[in-house]
Amino acid sequence: MTIFNLGSINADFTYQVPHLPQPGETLAATGLTRGLGGKGANMSVACARAAGRVFHIGAVGQDGKWAVERLLEYGVDTRHITITDEPTGHAIISVDPQGENSILILSGANHAITEQMIGSAICEGGPQDWLLMQNETNGLETAATLAKQVGMRVAYAAAPFVAADAAKIAPMADLLVLNEIEAQQLETEMNTRLTDLPVADIIVTKGSKGCTWHHNNSRIDFASYPAQVVDTTGAGDTFTGYVLAGLDRGLAIPQAIDLAQRAAALMVGRLGTADVIPDLKDVQDAQFDRD
């Protein structure tokens, strides 16, 4: 089984700051790191580190070949990543001492993905496979339509959230992942309860409060694992990637969610994004005290 991830690839410039910048404020950073990021790349790395087989569908500029090489090093199949004339997407990330962040994103090559690129990848998939998507690339409707035609299951992580766009894609999903605020906004946009959507499985993440899984008319709440927060960037992507990899490896959703919660708890204790996502052994060996 394979996860085909249509997703962004960014260079992440992460600045350590004494507090998140306010409008009009000039703020001195205390540190800077450059790493691999983008919600798509983060999820692909998380899938790979969770022992999933993942093909990344995406694009970078001539300046982004290092990112493709790094994805390959992390176990991601990169044959469906295209080099374009657009600059590689990048993110400017500010992180305060409490681990909270603010992020400024340039889409760049992430919005230069063509239907031909998407089609050439998805034609390799079938009913045993997943298509994973977020909102940092173009081509989502095309990809979801093609995936359904070949029998693939569709997972949609509806972030960065735009209500009108999410309302188009969510009904095409078999698995929908979004946070509490996004869930409320989607209900308002579609004028319906989240649980009335034609989606088999919905996971609503709640940060330190854990998450809720909705399936048919039932719900199960999962408490989060305790964590020492350093940087929350990429924690949600790690969670989603681990869920998908767990499902791809045959885990039931509750077991996949529990594993993903553990991975996210480790992730928030690390500074960075794709480069520091924990691997499966780290997650399985981790000891958490919930008392």
Task: Report a brief summary of the structure.
This protein is of the alpha/beta class. 31% of the residues lie in helices and 25% in strands.
Write structural notes for this entry.
The chain is of the alpha/beta class. The protein has a single domain (3-18, 34-280), classed as 3-Layer(aba) Sandwich (UDP-N-acetylmuramoyl-L-alanine:D-glutamate ligase), CATH 3.40.1190.20. Helix content is 31%, strand content 25%. The protein has helices at residues 39-49, 65-73, 115-122, 140-149, 163-169, 180-190, 235-248, 253-267, 280-285, and strands at 3-6, 10-16, 31-37, 54-61, 81-84, 89-95, 101-106, 130-133, 153-157, 175-179, 201-205, 211-215, 218-222. The strands form 2 sheets. The chain has a 9-stranded mixed β-sheet with strand order 5-4-1-8-9-10-11-12-13, with helices on both faces. Helix 5 (163-169) links the parallel strand 9 and strand 10 (175-179). Helix 1 packs across helix 7 (235-248) and helix 7 (235-248) packs antiparallel against helix 8. The longest helix has 15 residues, at 253-267. The radius of gyration is 18 Å and the shape is globular. The protein starts with a strand and ends in a 6-residue tail after the last helix. The relative contact order is 0.16. InterPro entries: PfkB_dom, Ribo/fructo_kinase, Ribokinase, Ribokinase-like. Catalyzes the phosphorylation of ribose at O-5 in a reaction requiring ATP and magnesium. The resulting D-ribose-5-phosphate can then be used either for sythesis of nucleotides, histidine, and tryptophan, or as a component of the pentose phosphate pathway. Its cofactor is Mg(2+). It catalyses: D-ribose + ATP = D-ribose 5-phosphate + ADP + H(+).
